[in-house]
Amino acid sequence: MWGKRLFIAVFLIPPLLLYGLFVVSPYAQAFQISGTDWSGLSPSYEFIGLENFRRLLGDGYFWNALRHNGLLLLLLPVVTILLGLFFASMISVGGRADRVGVHGVRGSGFYRVVYFFPQVLSVAIIGVLWKEMYAPHTGMINGFLRAVGLDGLAMAWLGDPRFSFWCVLVVLIWMNVGFYVVLFSAAMQSIPRDLYEAALLDGASRVTTLVRITVPLVWDTIQVAWVYLAIIAIDGFAVVQIITDGGPSSSSDVVGLRLYKTAFADGQFGYASAIGVAMFFLTLTVAVMFLRVTRRDRVEL
Amino acid sequence: MGYRISRRGLLHGAAGAAAIGALGGCAMGGDDSTDDAKGETSANNPLGVKEDAPLEVVIFNGGFGEEYAKAHEAMYQQRYPKAQIKHSATQQIAETLQPRFVAGDPPDVVNNSGASQIDFNGLVSQGALADLGELLDSPSRDDPNKKVRDTLLPGIVDVGSYDGKFLSLNYAYSAYGIWYSQKLFESRGWEYPKTWDDMIALCKTIKAAGIAPWTYPGKHSRYMSWPIVAAAGKMGGLDVLKALDNLEPNAWKHESVRAAAEAYYQLAVDGYLQPGAAGMDHIQAQTEWCRGKAAFLSCGSWLENEQKAVTPADFRMAIAPTPSLTTSDKMPFEAFRGTGSEPFIVPAKGKNVRGGLEYLRVMLSQQGASDFTRKVSSLTAVQGSSNGIELGPGLTSVTKMIEASNGGAFTWLYNSYYRKLERERIDAACAELFAKRINAAQWCDQVQKSADEFAQDPAIKKYKRA
Predict the structure, then answer these.
(1) Nearest CA to CA, how far is B465 from chain A (Å)?
(2) B-contacting residues of A 239-258, CB under 8 Å?
(3) What ipTM did this prediction achieve?
(4) Are A213 and A191 a contacting pair, CB within 8 Å?
(5) Model pTM greater than 0.90?
(6) CA B223-B225-B230 angle, 5° bins
(7) Do B26 and A40 touch (CB under 8 A)?
C-alpha cells in the first residue's frame, strides 16, 4: 500500500514542485505586484491598494485592446473549428464511397501534411512571413491581386485601420487550423467505419453525415479545441506584436501587447501586473463558461 | 488504494502551498548595497579607476553591431591590463537587464538603445543612473588641458540631461533631414527646394515624371513627425520646441506647429505620397526610395549604413534641412535637427562605476571615436573625430550640412523624456494624418490631447527643459 503511494509520489511531486515554482509562483507574485506602483527597475515600491485596477477601468487603450480580444474570442474559435472539422472530415471520410469503403479524398495524406505545416514554423517566422506577404509593393498578396487584374483591391493592408485587425485574424486562423485538422482527424479515426457505411446506405449526404454522425462523436475533442482557441484568442500577443505592433492607431492592439508595452516600454510593472491579473480572471472565466455552455450528454459507442 | 484524491483537489492544494511559499521570496526583493571600487586618482587616472576591478559592458546589437565596442574594450584594457572585461551584446536590453537592475546587480556600462530600450523616465525617476558630470569635467585623454565636456559636439549634453544632471551619453551624432538621390536630381535637373512653395512645385514636376515625390514608413509614421516638428521649430524658434518638451498647455496648437502640419499634410492631399506607403515599415519604405520609386524620404544620418546592402553604387544619397515654411522663419534654412543617439549609461549600482566612467572617457577619445566612425559609418559626439576618414556620400553630405549650419543645429527632447508620447501617440496621429483620415488641425488636437494626458499622469516623472 505505502509502497504504491510512494511510487506514485515519486512521479508526482517533482513535476508539481517545478510547476509550483515556475508557473504558480509567478502568478501569485503578479497578484502581489499588481497592488504596488513598482517600476520594475529598482527594488523599491509602495503598496497602493487597488489604485492600478481603478486606473485600468478608466484606460481607454485597455478597453480598445480588450474589444479586439473580444472579437477574436467570438470569431477565432468558431472559424477555426468549422474549417478544422471540414478539412478533417474531407481527409478522413470525405472521399467517394467505393469498394474500399469509407475513406478520405484523393491525396488526403498530402493535405494532412500541408495543413500541419504552419505548426512546424515558429510564431516569429510566421509573423515575419505574413508581414512580408502583406507588404504593399513587394508583398505576395498585392502581387497576386495585380497579376489577376484586380489592381483596385491591392491595399496597404497593415497600414489601414480598417484591415489590420482582420489581417491578424487571418494569420491566427491560418496558423491554428492545421493543428485542429490533425486533432479532429485523430478523433474521427476512432469512429467505427460501419456507422458511415450505414449512413451511406441510407442515402445520407456528406453534410448530414458530418452534422449527425461526426460532430456528436467528436464533441469532446471540439470542446477541448474550443477552450484552447479561446485562450489563444485572449492572448494573440506574439502574432500581433510582430505583424502590426498593435497599429495603425491601436486598431489591432490586444491586451497582451498592452501588458508587454506597459511593463517593458513604460517601466510600469505594477500597472502591467494589474493588466495581467485582469487577463487571468478573464481567461479563467471564459474557459469555465465555454466548458459549461458546450456541456452536453456524451454519446457512448 | 484507501481513498482517492481528485486531480483537481490535488492541484488546488499544491497551488495554495506554492503561493504561500512564493509570497515570501518575491521578484522585488533586492540588495541595496553598492560596492563601488575606487582607486587612487592621478593625472593618468583622473577618475580613480581601481586597476584590477573587473568591468562589464552590455552592448545593444543593432545597426552598429558590437565590433566597435570590442575595440573600445581593447583600448580600455591596454590602459588597465589587470582589469577583466566581460562583454555581451543583445537586442533585448530591457528584458535582459531589468531583473539585474532590480537585483541591484547591473552591469557597469550599458548601451541602452533599440526597440527594447529601458525607458529613461523609469530609470531616472528610480535613481538608477550614475551622474556623468564628473566625466564631463575630467580631462580628455588626448589633451590634459581640455575637459571632456569641451570635446563634445553642441547638443550632446542637453540631450542626455535630466533636470540638469547629465545621465546618459548619446555617443553617436545623428542629423535629421530630408534625403534624396543626387544622381537622380542631377540627371533630371532638379534642385533641392529651400522653401515649402518650391517643394510643392518640385513635387508636381516629380510626379509628372512618373516618380512618387515622397515615401514614408506608414507603420512607423513618427518618421514624418520629425520634419513637421523641425519645420515648426525653424519657423517659430527654439521656444516653440521647449514648450513641446515641457508639455505646456496648447504647445502643439502653436501657430507654427499648425503651419508645419498643414504644410506636410498638403503632401497627402495633393497625392505626393507614394501609394501604399501607409502599409510599409521603415526598411520597406527606405528600400523603395533606394530603388528610385520615390524622390524624398525623412530619416536620420544612420540611413546610409542601414541601407548599405541595397543602395545602388552610383545612387549618391544626400541629406538636406527641411525647407523654410515662410520668408520670416526665425531660423535660417540651413538650421537642422542634430542630436545624440545611441545612449550609453553607467548604472548607479554597478560594481565598477569608476571603470564605467573611464570606459566612456575611452570612447570619447579621438582614437575611440574615429575608430567608431570607421567601423560603423556614423559620426560621433566627439568634435572632429571624422577628420581624415573617408566617408560615404551620405555621411559626407551630413558633414556638409553640419558645416553649412554654422552651429545652427537644434533638437527637441520630449521623445527622450516621454518616449511613449512619440513612439505610440505621435506615431499613431501621423499615421492618421498622412492617410488623410484626419486633417492638420485635428492632428494638432490629437497630439495635444496625448501630451496633456502625459502632463496629468502622476505615474510619469516630469522634466523641465531650461
Answers:
(1) 21
(2) 244-245, 247-250
(3) 0.80
(4) yes
(5) no
(6) 110
(7) no
